[in-house]
């Protein structure tokens, strides 16, 4: 498979972001770029990146297989990732995963027959303060349970794009891969949505309510080197 002219132009733009002689630093965004066109990193995608960066296919492949965000077989329009690590598991993450697995009829790293949804259990989604969580194309749905998670997936299957708890509005896997390559979301509403939620600032709010402040330097102490 040959890549589109748009992908060739985008690759050149990505490489131009880096100083001369440092083009290999463009590898990660280039991998996201080829994934945006093929919904995974194929052998052709590895060769495309290697040729443009002066690397071997083995060097590119080693990176592509190290990071879990690079998929080695096609992903559906929506990648549903359910956290099953400790915090989420203790609060019902395994129940969430099991419900979706039964709902879709697929297991870990498998895609529904219509090519719409790929399911995976994730070791950690870095959102323990919102556990249990799942993501769809890396957008967060916080404090879910089996019923609310099922409703999210039902919405996806019905052609809807349920609003994430935080961050921008949902987009396709191909679209988010292009954004991860360093290209802005072209949708006017692409930057909408809430950012940090209350669980993330609970400690700060507690400190403010209690009147706690950072420790002050001892009286008479001078900054080192002054």
Describe this structure in words.
There is one protein chain. With 226 residues, the protein is an alpha+beta fold. The chain has helices at 5-15, 27-38, 43-53, 57-66, 86-90, 93-104, 146-157, 173-180, 202-210; strands at residues 78-83, 110-111, 117-122, 134-136, 139-141. The chain has a 5-stranded mixed beta sheet, covered by helices on one side. α1 (5-15) packs antiparallel against α2, α2 runs antiparallel to α3 and α3 (43-53) crosses α4. The protein is globular, with a radius of gyration of 21 Å. The relative contact order is 0.11.
N-to-C SSE string, H for helix and E for strand: HHHHEHHEEEEHHH
Indicate the low-confidence ranges by residue numbers.
Answer: none
Strand elements, count: 5
Major sheet, described briefly?
5 strands, mixed
Using the CA coordinates, give the radius of gyration.
21 Å
| Strand arrangement across the biggest beta sheet | 2-3-1-4-5
For the termini, the CA-CA separation is 63 Å
* Tally of alpha and pi helices: 9
Which strand-content bin applies to the residues? 5-15%
SS content category: alpha+beta
Shape: globular
Give the % helix: 25-40%
Mean pLDDT: 92
Write the layout of secondary structure elements.
Layout: H1 5-15, H2 27-38, H3 43-53, H4 57-66, E1 78-83, H5 86-90, H6 93-104, E2 110-111, E3 117-122, E4 134-136, E5 139-141, H7 146-157, H8 173-180, H9 202-210
Parallel strand pairs: 1-3
Antiparallel strand pairs: 1-4, 2-3, 4-5
């Amino acid at each position: 498979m040959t890549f589109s002219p748009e992908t060739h132009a985008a690759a050149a733009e990505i490489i131009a972001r880096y100083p001369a002689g440092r083009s290999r630093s463009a590898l990660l965004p280039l991998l996201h770029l080829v994934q945006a066109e093929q919904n995974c990193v194929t052998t052709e995608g590895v060769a495309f990146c290697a040729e443009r960066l002066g690397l071997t296919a083995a060097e590119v492949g080693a990176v592509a297989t190290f990071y879990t965000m690079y998929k080695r077989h096609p992903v559906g329009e929506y990648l549903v990732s359910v956290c099953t690590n400790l915090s989420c598991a203790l609060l019902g993450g395994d129940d969430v995963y099991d419900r979706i697995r039964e709902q879709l009829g697929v297991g870990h790293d498998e895609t529904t027959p219509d090519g719409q949804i790929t399911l995976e259990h994730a070791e950690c989604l870095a959102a323990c303060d919102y556990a249990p969580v799942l993501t769809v194309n890396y957008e967060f749905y916080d404090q879910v349970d089996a019923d609310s998670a099922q409703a999210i997936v039902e919405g996806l299957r019905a052609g809807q794009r349920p609003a994430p708890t935080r961050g921008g509005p949902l987009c396709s896997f191909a679209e988010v891969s292009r954004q991860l390559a360093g290209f802005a979301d072209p949708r006017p509403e692409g930057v909408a949505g809430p950012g940090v939620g209350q669980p993330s600032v609970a400690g700060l709010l507690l400190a403010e309510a209690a009147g706690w402040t950072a420790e002050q330097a001892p009286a008479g102490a001078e900054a080192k080197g002054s």
